[in-house]
Fold this protein.
Amino acid sequence: MSMDTPQSTAAAPAGGAAPAVGGAEEAAPRTPAGAPADGPPGAEGTRRRRIPRWAVPAAAVVLLALLPFSTLPVPGVFEGPLNSPATLQLLATCLVFAGLATSYDLLYGRLGLLSFGHALYFASGAYFAALLMELLRLPLAAAAPLAVAGGTLLALLLGAVSLRVSGIALAMVTLAFAQAGSILVVRDPGRATGGEEGLSLEADLVPDALVGVFNTANLYWLAAAYAVLAAGAVWWLDSTPTGRVWRGIRANERRVAVLGLNPYPYKLAAFTVAGGLASLGGVAYLVVSGGVTPVVTTAEFTLTLLVMVALGGAGTRWGPVLGAVLYTYLDHRLLDVAASDGFERLPAAVQAPLSQPLFILGMLFVAMVYFFPGGLAALPARIGAAVARRRRRGPPPD
């Protein structure tokens, strides 16, 4: 399975200045002399007010923080009101995977690196934390940072080896590491990993505020904090000079090397940061779900992350978040629909394919790629362009 990454060009500035390796996203439109900054010349002083870039993320954070206080029912979407334990648990799971998909987009969307082993670092964070709590009886506050540090170090070591190659070879090397980790977990050496049953969370080593159905809102806030942290870190890094080098590598790695920059350290830095964020997501997943199973160690799990990112829009600010939330929500809700009483009354020819959530999600993904190749994040721009074209054509003749 191979997917193309967006391509752009990088240009070298004259005069021996520091090389600018950003793509077309870095080009800022120039305003003609004497024209208003936010409007065309001759607009009689009328200026278009633009929403600050921080306004939408800030509103999203406030909305996420206040959601557990809402008793608004959403029939057909959630089983209960927004602040019900079942709804908050589902939303917490969606937010954990939103942060994880954003960390994967740092590799795939920002640098164009196709890795099939990202699930290994997510699983390492969850398993390291669970093992430290079970074997060493460390509290969650001590086990969590050690698990994240271990997962980050693992990403650094494996990335140093994997990034010696590129393209399909990189995908195969990361897949090999992921398969080795998955086999190790399933084989259960020394009865440490729990085998196919996995490991459960040691509730007595977790703060009381994160244990029990009545504290589901706290679990939701924990997942929301991780999603905000992962997205904020990736967005901030993308705006730095290092982020511009990453976009240059995605556009044309050879040209970046010709400009005098060694791509390898930049790729390794992204690989390590993405692995560290994924490890942190594994710890959050362990607490939110109350345990971890070998399902999160497989290469199929990484393919799921790839689908999430592509569904939302790779390399965009909101695409990985939207894709992960939609995919995770549908994955859980379709299982509930397949188990409902009304589903059994459907004809067998309809019931058979619809009973497999992966079939429906696969068809949805194919439809999105075919009709909306830019993902969910590109829908507003595509709709706006369609409306603008229709306005230019004018009303149909009588």
